[in-house]
């Protein structure tokens, strides 16, 4: 029976580190501040934006919520983001997704300056992931890594199989985990005989967006399984892994909910602090 990798204690550990770093910046005359841009009134988006505001209050960040109507023009949104990019008191900018359908999501998210792109979606930051440089990287792949590293899981030399090649998790995670000297295989919807690959994994990370995709017969005995999927099934949240079945064969497994997702807001705010350091370095301070 696998040990469960809960996200809450690790998230609390990260939040304590963030609080200390916020105090360090405040002693230098800088109070970290994030701008959260919300367009429309999608209930889930409003909830997530408000939860980020609450996290800011708890961790000592200043925040500015910019709530625009559903029918906002793209040009107006780009103008607002341009002002935020130039505002030295704003250290991070986050665009809450999904945006209304009439807007070009990529154009808007990529208009955020790379050093303020706390979601890690700008092409510059994507390139820095590949090159191993210092940039701002997406929170969910970071969450997967933090669960592994802070739980004492050895990554070096291990065979890591990632199921899912999406821009949010799978693609960036490949390059982020390569930095730890893992051997990486990536599977996706067109992979033939996926089980033949997943059964070789010492560490299996799943972010495919298909509830219950990975079953016990697809997992090597003693493997570490990280479930980064989130799906709503019959009004309940489920991961991409059949938790009950896989728990019988894995050595460690993260639950959904309660695993990867618990860390993401803290890591988003940690990106703000990383952004401040990069901004200060660029300014020669």
Automatic annotation (TrEMBL):
One of its GO terms (cellular component) is cytosol. This is Bifunctional protein FolD. The lineage of its organism: Bacteria, Bacillati, Bacillota, Clostridia, Eubacteriales. It catalyses: (6R)-5,10-methylene-5,6,7,8-tetrahydrofolate + NADP(+) = (6R)-5,10-methenyltetrahydrofolate + NADPH; (6R)-5,10-methenyltetrahydrofolate + H2O = (6R)-10-formyltetrahydrofolate + H(+). Residues 5-119 form the Tetrahydrofolate dehydrogenase/cyclohydrolase catalytic domain. Pfam families: THF_DHG_CYH (PF00763), THF_DHG_CYH_C (PF02882). GO terms for molecular function: methenyltetrahydrofolate cyclohydrolase activity; methylenetetrahydrofolate dehydrogenase (NADP+) activity. Residues 138-276 form the Tetrahydrofolate dehydrogenase/cyclohydrolase NAD(P)-binding domain. NADP(+) binds at residues 164-166, 230. Keywords: Amino-acid biosynthesis, Histidine biosynthesis, Hydrolase, Methionine biosynthesis, Multifunctional enzyme, NADP, One-carbon metabolism, Oxidoreductase, Purine biosynthesis. Catalyzes the oxidation of 5,10-methylenetetrahydrofolate to 5,10-methenyltetrahydrofolate and then the hydrolysis of 5,10-methenyltetrahydrofolate to 10-formyltetrahydrofolate. Homodimer. The gene is folD. One of its GO terms (biological process) is tetrahydrofolate interconversion. Pathway: One-carbon metabolism; tetrahydrofolate interconversion.
């Amino acid at each position: 029976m696998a040990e469960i990798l809960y996200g809450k204690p690790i998230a609390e550990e990260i939040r304590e580190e963030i609080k200390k770093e916020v105090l360090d910046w405040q002693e230098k005359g800088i109070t970290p501040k994030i701008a959260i841009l919300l367009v429309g009134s999608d209930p889930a988006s409003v909830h997530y934006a408000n939860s980020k505001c609450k996290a800011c209050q708890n961790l000592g960040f200043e925040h500015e919520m910019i709530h625009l109507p559903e029918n906002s023009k793209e040009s107006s949104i780009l103008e607002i983001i341009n002002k935020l990019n130039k505002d030295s008191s704003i250290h991070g900018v986050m665009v809450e997704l999904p945006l209304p359908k009439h807007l070009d999501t990529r154009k808007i998210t990529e208009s955020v300056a790379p050093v303020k792109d706390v979601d890690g979606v700008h092409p510059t930051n994507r390139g820095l992931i590949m090159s191993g440089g210092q940039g701002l990287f997406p929170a969910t792949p970071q969450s997967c890594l933090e669960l592994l590293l802070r739980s004492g899981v050895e990554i070096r030399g291990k065979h890591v199989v990632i199921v899912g090649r999406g821009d949010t998790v799978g693609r960036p995670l490949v390059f982020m985990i390569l930095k730890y000297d893992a051997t990486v295989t990536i599977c996706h919807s067109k992979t033939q005989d996926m089980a033949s690959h997943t059964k070789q994994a010492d560490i299996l990370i799943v972010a495919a967006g298909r509830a219950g995709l990975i079953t016990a017969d697809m997992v090597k005995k003693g493997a570490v399984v990280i479930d980064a999927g989130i799906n709503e099934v019959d009004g309940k949240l489920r991961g991409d892994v059949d938790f009950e079945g896989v728990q019988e064969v894995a050595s460690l497994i993260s639950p959904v909910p309660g695993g990867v997702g618990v860390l993401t807001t803290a890591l988003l705010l940690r990106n703000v602090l990383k952004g401040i350091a990069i901004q200060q370095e660029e300014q020669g301070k």
